[in-house]
TrEMBL record:
<comment type="subunit">
    <text>Interacts with the GTP form of RRAGA, RRAGC and RRAGD. Interacts with NIP7. Interacts with DDX18; the interaction is RNA-dependent. Interacts with DDX47; the interaction is RNA-dependent.</text>
</comment>
<keyword id="KW-0539">Nucleus</keyword>
<dbReference type="InterPro" id="IPR012677">
    <property type="entry name" value="Nucleotide-bd_a/b_plait_sf"/>
</dbReference>
<comment type="function">
    <text>Plays an essential role in the survival of diffuse-type gastric cancer cells. Acts as a nucleolar anchoring protein for DDX47. May be involved in regulation of gene expression at the post-transcriptional level or in ribosome biogenesis in cancer cells.</text>
</comment>
<keyword id="KW-0694">RNA-binding</keyword>
<protein>
    <recommendedName>
        <fullName>Nucleolar protein 8</fullName>
    </recommendedName>
</protein>
<dbReference type="Pfam" id="PF00076">
    <property type="entry name" value="RRM_1"/>
</dbReference>
<dbReference type="InterPro" id="IPR034138">
    <property type="entry name" value="NOP8_RRM"/>
</dbReference>
<dbReference type="GO" id="GO:0003723">
    <property type="term" value="F:RNA binding"/>
</dbReference>
<keyword id="KW-0597">Phosphoprotein</keyword>
<feature type="domain" description="RRM">
    <location>
        <begin position="2"/>
        <end position="83"/>
    </location>
</feature>
<dbReference type="InterPro" id="IPR035979">
    <property type="entry name" value="RBD_domain_sf"/>
</dbReference>
<dbReference type="InterPro" id="IPR000504">
    <property type="entry name" value="RRM_dom"/>
</dbReference>
<dbReference type="GO" id="GO:1902570">
    <property type="term" value="P:protein localization to nucleolus"/>
</dbReference>
<dbReference type="GO" id="GO:0005730">
    <property type="term" value="C:nucleolus"/>
</dbReference>
Length: 96
């Protein structure tokens, strides 16, 4: 299982769009779609975290095909998601 960060998304993208697009490379388990808005409610950044069951070879193919590609008015930026600081702190506390 991999967790991917996908940035550069158009504000009109849906979870289904992402499942369909990434489902060609692996089994999409979960899609978190987030849009940041300014103080007036205008969206300025849309990104996603995708949990996907994918082999190393298919991940490489996915990154080669989709990273920096144009899609629905945005340019995709895809990378393996970094583990959040809070998640790491929680793991350390549970292990101690």
């Amino acid at each position: 299982m991999r967790r991917l960060y996908v940035g550069g998304l158009s504000h009109s993208i849906t979870q289904k769009d992402l499942k369909d697009r990434f489902g060609k490379f692996g089994d999409v388990q979960d899609v978190e779609l987030r849009t940041r808005r300014d103080e007036e409610g205008v969206p300025y950044k849309t990104f996603s975290y995708i949990n996907i069951d994918i082999s190393d070879a298919d991940l490489k193919k996915c990154l080669t095909v989709l990273n920096k590609s144009k899609w629905k008015g945005g340019t995709l930026q895809i990378e393996t998601a970094k583990e959040s600081f809070l998640h790491r702190v929680y793991q350390v506390k549970t292990l101690c």
